[in-house]
Each structure stands twice: as structure tokens, then as C-alpha cells.
Amino acid sequence: MRRTILFVTLTVLLLALPLAVAAKSVYPDVIPLAKGFAPEGITEGRGHTFYYGAINGGAIFRGDYRTGDIEPLVDPDPNRVALGLSFDRRSDLLYVAGGFAGTAHVYDATDGSEVATIQLTAPFAGLVNDVTVTRNAVYFTDSFQAAIYRVPLGAGGSLPDPAQVEEIPLGGDFVLVPQPPPPDFIANANGIVATPDNSWLLIVNTAVGELYRVNPQTGYATLIDLSGADVLTGDGLVLRGHTLYVVQNFLNRIGVIELDPDLATGTYVNALTSDAFRIPATAAIFGNALYAVNARFDEIDPFNVPPDAEFEAVRIEINR
Length: 320
Fold this sequence. Notes:
Elements: H1 2-24, E1 30-32, E2 39-44, E3 49-54, E4 60-64, E5 70-74, E6 85-88, E7 93-97, E8 103-108, E9 114-119, E10 128-133, E11 137-142, E12 147-152, E13 166-169, E14 171-172, E15 189-194, E16 201-205, E17 210-214, E18 220-223, E19 234-240, E20 243-248, E21 253-259, E22 266-272, E23 280-286, E24 289-294, E25 312-317
Parallel strand pairs: 14-18
Antiparallel strand pairs: 1-25, 2-3, 3-4, 4-5, 6-7, 7-8, 8-9, 10-11, 11-12, 12-13, 15-16, 16-17, 17-18, 19-20, 20-21, 21-22, 23-24, 24-25
């Protein structure tokens, strides 16, 4: 009888082993992205879906965290770029920062059809860099100007036709570093994220390595005291609870900031790294992991990308 029980137990364990191994490998640590398209923005969708955009040509792709599958959603256009992205699950709309063109593009996240193109500022006057969706508006950063752009939303996240734009000056403690002569440029306001109650916006200044708590109505920016730490080369932001993740692109790491409840101070507690990082630009969160897209800014001109150039989304666990 004991031998029979032992045999059955061993059989069950051996049968369960492949299932455990399969479960462990469901979510790949590195997801190859579309060749020849330099990624910048990434955002989570419904379920295990994510979206990312290409700087060169503004194409949008839909991916699957679980399988690693990637499929085109919006075709490339030589006159467009795609920087930051944000998905509104209420309306199934995808908002995309349009860069030097001063535009925002809005797409149907199901079929990729264009819903609207919104002119936020004059072409080449600014660099529309990142975006966040709140309960009643969408906010965009401008890396060249001390301003953010507010696009009001209707009931259920609906986008009015025509869309309205409000330019809100960034004041208070916000620092704007002047632009050098072209073709060089300096990124100021970059990543943006809203607090869950929509009371505040958090914005990173790439050039000076500072974080700000911003009043979404007035644009008044208050410097978040990091006790001497900085977030230089800060790019995309991800907020979960009171933990802010700052993608520090050229430093090849993601800074972990624990914010106090009033958002006036924060502690730089850790830096997440990966051997697979190749200048990550932005990140999205899914479950207990961040997914950061490698932009490879140190190796590849994002406006002149070889067709065989390889890019990835890198999974890094956050254990939260």
C-alpha cells in the first residue's frame, strides 16, 4: 500500500512539473518588437494587451504580454511620429503625443481607425512628448515650452467633436532650460501621470532631473523634495499607489520613488536594472511587472532606422 501511494504521489508530481514550467514561462522576459520601428511610448490596454508607438512614421502596434505576439494597428505615415501613449478603457480610445508637429493623434484601439488629430501648438514650436488620461481631460507635456495642454473629455471619456485645447502655463518651481541651436535639443517636461483621484499631475523634467506635483487646473508646479537625489534623464513615468517609477533612459535604469501622501516629498529607494535594457524610454505596468521599451537612442537615430534594427520590451518584476 505504501509503495502504491508513493508511486501515485511521484506520478502526480511528475505530471505537474511540465505545467509548473509552462506557467513560469507564460510571460516572456523579453518581447521582440517590430523590426525597423523605433519605439518610445507604451501603455497598457485591456487584459494582457499593450500598445506602443514608433518614432519613425508614427505607426502603432498592439502586443500581448502573455504570448509576446505583436501586430500592426496603425500604419506608418512619413509625416508623423508617435511618442507617449495613453489608453482610455472607457472609450477604447488611444491618445498619442505627436512630437515636433505639435499634434495629438487619437485612434480607435480596436481597429486602429483615426478618430481625431488635434493641433495643440504650432508645428516645430514645441515637442509634444507624453500624455495621461484623467476622468475629465487628457493632458500632454511639451518638452520645449513651459506649458501643458488640456483636452477636455465628455461623459464616459467621450472626445467632443471638435476637440477643444487649453494651453496651461507651467509656473511655480518649474524650470525651463533654453533650447540650443538646432539640430540639438533639450527635453524639459517629459513624462506625465495623474494621481488616481485626478487631483494632481506628476511631471518629470528630463534636463534638470526634477519631479513636480502640478495643479491640473492652474499649472502651478511644486518641486517634490527628493532629499538630494535626482531623476536625471527621466523619461516615462508609472504610478502605483504612492510608488512612482521613473524610467531614466540613458542611465539604463528605472528609479523607484516612494512618495509621501501629500506628494511634497519622496525617497529614492531603489533603481531597477536589467541586462536586457538598451536605453529604455517608457514603461507600462501589468500585474507585478513593468514592461520597458528599449529605444536604443545611443545606437540608432530614431528618424533614420535601418529596416532590420531590433527593439524589445523588457519585463522586470517589481514584487508589489
